[in-house]
Structure formats: C-alpha cells, structure tokens
Amino acid sequence: MKQFTFYKLYADILDAMNDTDAGKFATRICEYEFEDKLPGEELSGKERFYWSNIADMLTEVKEAESSGGSLKKYNLRSEHFTFYETYFDAMKLMKGNDLGAFVKAICAYMFRGEEATFKDKEVQGYFNLCKRKMDISKKRKSGGSRGGKAKCGAGKTQERAKEEAGEQQKVEEEMTYEQFGSVQNGKQNNRGGGMI
Question: What percent of the chain has pLDDT over 70?
Fold first, then answer.
C-alpha cells in the first residue's frame, strides 16, 4: 500500500507517550501498514497494551483499504487523514526524539491545524516537504465534507445558488407588478424570445 487511514485514536495514543516512545510506536504502525510486519516480542508493557487495543482496528481497516471496501464504520466515528508512505520514508531518516516529534507534528497539523517548527533544519525540511502532501489531503477532505461542487449552472455551488435564489425572491417580493413585468421581459429577450 502507498497510504493508509490514520485515525485520531492513533494520535491520542502517540500524544500520551514521550517523543522517543511515540516514534517507536508510530514506526510499528507504519511497518504493519506498509510492510506487513507485525510487532515482535520487543513490545514494552505499555506498547503491548496500546497495540492490543488497536490491532483489530488496524487489521480491519487494512483489509478494507486493500480490497477497496468501505471504512464508514470508522470514518464516521473518528477524525482521520490519509497517511502517505512518503511520511514513513521521512520517518526512517530520523531517530529518537526527532522521530516522535515529527509524527506528533504531522498529527497536530492534520487534526488541529498547528504547524510545528523544528530546531533541526533537516527535520524541518522533511516536515515542509510532507506538508505539501498534507495540504493536498486537507483540501480533498474539505472538498469531500462539503460534498464537492454542485452541478447547478456554470460551476455554482449549491450554497451560492440558494443565496442567489433568496436574493431573487426578495427582489421579486419588493417589486411592483410593472417592475416585475419588465424584468421578466428582459429575461425573455435575453433568451432570444419575446413576450407574446
């Protein structure tokens, strides 16, 4: 897979950890998603607890994404974003606190709109490159939550069409009969026809 759905639950778990542990745990999630690698016996007690609570969800979501199935069960209940393999590629270039801070920064940007600044220019560069994809993902999600563009007129959104209809109705309500007739006459003439 080149991407997977990253749920707020995962971010909440990472936020409860120090940066080093968060980096390790995020790496385990990515290794499972991108490399089909299950965590070995090296899990600490805390990691084992967290993993056991999300393993079934990770498996179910991965199977659905691989087969093109629906994720409504989880997507409607939890905030989420698309986690691309390029983020994992950047993660592989870091270690320790930088790795955990990087993953937490991705989550903070996607879930809360908070943009991180890193002391290490190299890590900042990785984040900035990944941010381009994150911005595209945010834009797509925003468009999807609004239902995309409406098919009414020359690219008008449904909201704008409703506003215009409301304005037109208000104008028509305030017109005299003669004013209304002349507006309607103008509309007929613009269409190439006239009043009979």
Answer: 71
Kindly write down the DSSP assignment for every residue of 44-103, as one continuous string.
-HHHHHHHHHHHHHHHHHHHHHHHT---HHHHTTS-EEEEEHHHHHHHTT--HHHHHHHH
- Encoded tokens for 104: 């937490």
Q: Residue 89 and residue 87: Cα distance in Å, rounded?
A: 5
pTM for the predicted model, two decimal places:
0.69
Measure the CA–CA gap between 14 and 11, rounded to whole angstroms: 5
Nearest to 46 by CA among 28, 64, 72, 73: 28
In the beta sheet, which residues pair with residue 156? 152
- The rounded distance, in Å, linking the Cα atoms of 168 and 119 is 56
